[in-house]
Amino acid sequence: MKVLIVGAGPTGLTAAVELARRGVIPTVVDGRDAASLFSRAVGITPKSLRYLEPAGVAPRLIEEGIAMRAANVYLGDRLAVTIPIRSRHAGFPYLLGLPQDRTEAILAETLESFGGTVRYGLRVDTVIPQDRGAVVEFADGTVDAFDIVVGADGVRSTVREAGGFDYPGIDLDDPWSIADVDAANWRHAGEFSLFRAGPGRVVIVAPIGTSRYRVVATTPDALATLPVPMDVTNVRRAATFELAVRQTSSYSRGDIHLAGDAAHCHSPVGGRGMNLGIADASTLAAAIVDGDLENYSPIRHRVAAEAIAMTERGRRLITSRRRAPARFFAGLLAMLRILGPLRRRAGRFLVEF
Ligand SMILES: Cc1cc2nc3c(=O)[nH]c(=O)nc-3n(C[C@H](O)[C@H](O)[C@H](O)COP(=O)(O)OP(=O)(O)OC[C@H]3O[C@@H](n4cnc5c(N)ncnc54)[C@H](O)[C@@H]3O)c2cc1C
Question: Is residue 62 included in any domain, yes or no?
């Protein structure tokens, strides 16, 4: 069986690893000249670690990552509640903090250990669906036929467009920002922290290495929005980014299948994007090998639709500039502080919704 995976982000690499370990070595291409050094996702959920365990990827991620075992929520500069993180996935009772480029590097090395490889610097120009399989034209002028094409080529997916898939949704107005920093003596070194700095102003801080942190904000300047002091010794990277909330209606058309951001995108609130992609890819790889592709689209569409709805509810609640949602959020935090069982449920919900 000839399988082409377009895109070597976390989704494409997971699909490749999961196929290769089952004996189907796919062709994997990525338009970039080399592996990415930029990191977007930093939080790997227990469920993703479970998916990545059989190939031996999870232990390597855990070895390098930071196990975040608690989430702190602030109103302004006041700590409102600390929620211990829990999980029903035994062995991984935490959210793992690791820069996305390291996750990708470990996946790529694992792919090589199974006999696969990524061809960087090779873009797919177009995909022409056939009665069976698809013909693919590459940017270097070569043309090849494949039994199955997996579009794991991100938000601006060529495969999605060429395959005639839709991608309905909205673009959000205000840009968000990100800063990757080194900082000394941060108050929550191994933990996740969320600050509601003011109306519409939210900052998230997550550890991604020793004394290294990812700061994300709903404003154009992440560090300036942080309402508590942070002793930043080095800014490795700072940037703004645009957000969209979109999902394709169907993940499959004939022998072309979409996975990851090519099929869905949303805000980083809840840290689900990459994790959904890893789950799409694992499910798709198993379905390809088992010859059972009919259920892939309905199952993964439903899971992502629920995650997007939840993510959007969370984004609207914490970023609202109106008084009523702000009061509701403060009341919720007060209840979490007082009620242990509710706090424990919240600790599981944070990594498993
Ligand atoms: C600031 C920020 C923070 C985030 N934090 C989190 C988090 O904590 N947890 C989480 O789960 N998610 C998070 N996300 C989302 C996460 O980064 C994405 O969901 C994830 O990168 C999607 O992976 P992917 O492999 O589907 O797509 P991508 O990572 O976009 O990879 C697509 C690949 O396809 C290649 N490509 C594109 N077109 C072609 C073509 N025509 N031919 C060949 N190759 C092509 C590209 O070069 C690229 O390498 C965050 C996002 C942002 C912006």
Answer: no
